[in-house]
Write the structure tokens for this entry.
Amino acid sequence: MISLSSYLFISFTLFIAGIAVMIARKNIIAMMLGIELILNSAALNFAAYTRFINNNLEGHLMSLFIIVIAAAEAAVGLAIVIRFFQIKETIHIDDAAQLQS
Amino acid sequence: MQASSNLLNWILWTPFIGVIGVLLIPKSKENLIRWWALVNTAITFVLTLVLYSKFDTSVPGMQEAFNVKIPWISSFNIFYNLGVDGISLPMIILTGLLFMLCILSSWTVTKQIKGYFALFLFLQTTVFGVFFALDFFLFYVYWEVMLIPMFFLIGIWGGENREYAAVKFFLYTFFGSILMLVGMVALYYASGKGVDSFSILALQGGRFSDLTIELFGTTLSFSKLFFIFLFIGFAIKVPVFPFHTWLPHAHVQAPTAVSVILAGVLLKMGTYGFLRIAFPIFPGASVHFADAIAWLGLINVIYGAFCAMAQTDVKKLVAYSSVSHMGFVMLGLAAMTVTGMNGAVLQMFNHGTSTAMMFLLIGILYERSHHRWIVRPDGSKGFGGLYTQLPKFTIIFIIAMFASMGLPGLSGFISEALIFLGIYEKYTTITVLALIGLLLGAAYLLWMFKRMFFGDVIEECKSYTDMNAREIAFMVPLCVAVVVFGIYPSPVLNVMRASVGKLVSMLATY
Amino acid sequence: MEYTISTIAPIVLLPFFAFVINAFIVKRFTTLAVIISCGSVIGSFFYAARVFFDFLNVFSADYYIHKTFTWFDLSYGSFPFKMDMGIYIDNMTATMLFMVTGVASLIHIFSTYYMRDDKRYGRFFVYLSLFTSAMLALVLSENLISVFIFWELMGFCSYSLIGFYYEKEGAGNASMKAFMTTRVGDVFFLLGILAIWSVVGSVSFVDIYQAIGMGKFNGLYALGIPLATFAGFSVFMGTIGKSAQVPLQVWLPDAMWGPTPCSALIHAATMVAAGVYLSLRCYPLMEAGNLTTLIAYIGGITAFGAATIALVQTDIKAVLAYSTISQLGYMVLGVGVGSYNAAFMHLITHAVFKACLFLSAGSVIHSLHDHHTHAHVQEMPRMGGLKNKMPYTFLAMLFCTLAIAGIPFFSGFVSKDRILGDALLMALDNKVYWGPALLGFGGALLTAFYMFRMMFLTFFGEPRDKELYDHTKKETLSWNRNLPLLILSLFTLGLFYSGSLTGQGFIKVAGEKFEWFQTLIVKPNLASFNNRQSQPFSFVNNSSTETFTKSKYDSNHGLSAEKAHHVHHIHHIGALVSIVIAFSGVFIATMMYFWRSWNPGFWVSLFSRWYRALQNKYYFDDVYIKGFIQKGLLPLNNLLAFIDMGIYDRYAIDGWEKVNRVLFTMANWFDNIIVDTVAVDGTGASVRFFNVILRTIQSGKIQFYFIVIILVLTGYIWTLNI
């Protein structure tokens, strides 16, 4: 029987992988892939906890919700990236440093 | 009962409806704006006459049938409370009449007509509010809000020195209002913050006679201290010497119609304040200070007359004559007798009509001459031979002038005679001295008349045209009022008799 | 005898309605307006005549009609106040009504001749109508307030008529002077009214008489003066102003700027007499206030002083103006010496002959037209010999001159002599009165002299301005020019007023019937007012039920036989002296100006200083206008006005701006240095300091931020110690 800790381990691995991608890669699209990984780890956590502790549908609902959010987020993010590319002709993250005054 | 109780609301808010109407009319339709304002004020005037016809002259004090009382700011027990009695009714009719005539006289205003008429009608609402208010807070609000249209009317449509005059007028009266505000708040706390704390009627009587107040370590009489506060607040409006110097500036700089309202109605708000608020709420203190009021009134009479005689600007002369004539009102108030008080209220009314005539006439003349010098600063004549040049104008001017100096048969005489009858026994010396004011009053007016109207027509006056039909139309009602109330004053006196008598009998117990 | 509102009211209302109607129609229908005016006053005359003859023949001597209505009522609770108006008719009122309406009617008629060519012909009648109604209303008044109202209205009419020729600067000055001078008196009069009201609680004549009779004034004081004296003097000041007594006489000569008929009506016959009428009405008050000596002196000084000024005048109207002042002085003198009856009689006789004199002068002036200046000529040096040109005017004027000069058998003698006789009587009784008495007699001498001087200069001798004389048309008899003159001159005969030459029958030419004046005009009997009953204004009088017993003419006037004999004796002496004086005045005038035996220039050079003083009217005008007004009043006004605007307003009021300026400069400094620099800017500086540190962290590199986030989160989780 697969225990809760197994799920959490996979989830943790996914999360670390996502963080690593986000920090290490300079390509914005790659960073968005990292975000997806983090979101998926979170969704997995919800599903696992609800299965093992409450045993009802709340966590599954939240997971579905996250998937929808992730899709929307990816769409918005890609739109920004396209617009960014049109202006700067690059998708290198260090070129998007306008927040520094 | 419900129908008549709404009458006060209608009178009060009809001009305000007019304001909204003026604002909705496009700027380019100037004649429509004028006619709208005229019709609106005419309706208001008719409503005041309806009020007069429904008024029960035998009832002293507030007429229950017309009372309006709606909670306004309940947490402080402030009510929207309107009422009318014999003291306010003559003022209300005067207000209705003068605003209507002033709109007619403002036909020649060309600068920003929309704003002018809107402010003018708004002014009328606030003036009515002051005369109707039975709640001290409401009274104060109207008293203050009235400054706003006045400020702009003087400051925008005034003469060459208008900003100075407008600011001066505003600050002066504002200073007085603040003292009044302090008095009002003090009364609110002294009366225990209860349901009646802002009700002018409930505060009346000697409720505060024995109250004392600690101030800077000394014990003062509450009523005397705050009587002085209220006194100064109202005295600035009257204006009582030494608070009078805003008046010449404001009058000279204001446009004609605003001068008329200022002299005809707004000055009376000061003396009305004494009758409605200061005297009834602090009867003991007012009796205590009656001597001082009488002496101040005397100074007003004499000093105003002397200053008037020295003026070379005819509008300033009439402005100072207002100072002098309002001094008679103060004398009548100080008398605290039936004759004196009735005389004072009647004088408020009569001065409203006669001075309005003078200012309107000067305005008519100014439209032709564009100056007001009796004698120019270089010593040459400003006017001459107007009698020959403007015969109709002169006849009306004579009526106005003699009414103003109190010729028997015209309205000013009865009120002045009543005031003198009232004060003679109490203040013989003051009477003797005040009679000099009567003499001087004739002197400066006749001297002015002689210099402007007699003799040959000087060159620049030859182009003046006599009064046109519109100008005659707004002068005739005042002429009729001046003559009719000079011969038969009972219509006015009957209205005020009971209310004034009630006030006098209340004061007599102190 | 039915007295209803329709028998008395028209006396006043006819002229008043004429005024109201004419005021509106005069522009368009001038002739109609004139007809209405004249018709109304003549109608009023007939109503007045009826009242007069009733009082003369039917009613008992002390009968009076007193009716009131409430004008307005201010009573409330325990504070009664009621102002009544009404009418009071006694013998004096009735006589006045008859005289005023009569004289006014004739003057109206004359005005249709005199003002015919004036461009404001109609307007003149408007004023005349208003004036006539005001005068009649004054006479009918039952209380002092009502007297005061109409008194002032007459002042207004007088003002308007003096300023009638408003194109002339001088008319403006004169009208203003007249109004202001009389106003001085009026203000005192009002004060007197107030003083009386404070005692009596009403100003009705009957109430005043009653109060004086009951001694209500005794022991009361106003400003430290006994109240009766205070009130009496104040009221008398009204007389001084209106009747042009010293020291307020200055306005009357200037009043001659008005058209001559109005001078006749207002400034000679009626309005100026209203002052005397008032002091007669208030005679009990004057007596109670012990003012008679003062009044006598003022009258005497005026009578004499004005007569002396009249000596040197060359303007025919000026001579008459000063003679008016002088004659009014006699009336006041009469009041002062207690000659109640004679003072009033002189008022009536004077009104008749002075109206006639003025109209005659108007007739002369109107005929003399200077073709160079297009003006009428009033200067006597340009006249002379006019009796051939205008015989009827001459005749009328001669009668009146004889009357005013005090020649026996003319009215002026009858009345003036009685006043002088009474003055003499008083003087013998009390030395104080010698002054007024002698002044009176001296004035009589001067009067005879200057009036005949005027006659000689105008009508006799050679014409001095030949061209003017030749241009003058010969007078033809016309109804509106000569009829009024001749009627008035007829009534200068003494017979109409008294059958005897002196007061108590020196030369009796007729029976008691002629002594109607003595019978009618008696001092008010104060005791009779004690139990009066007030009559409401119903006007349905029950007088028909009263029995009218005409009191018999009492030649002793209630005096004991011995005393009466003494009085008669003195009066005879007085009459003799008067006659001698009058004739010597005439004689001197004849020697100087008719025979030209005595050269007036000699006397002028002998008294040159006095002559200058007379020409300058004793410098009254100079003192008042140049001294009092120009040096006193106007500088004071300017000073006060300067203090008001130049000092008080500028420094005390606008000075607040300066104070504020200092305050806000200080506040500004505090704000800038302490609050802004230290507190606010100090905060800013500290922010900048941290900024330097923090901006290095804020790289804008998002991955750096992630690292920080992760580190912080890890650190946070670490601290949770799980």
Residues 299-497+558-614 of chain C form one domain.
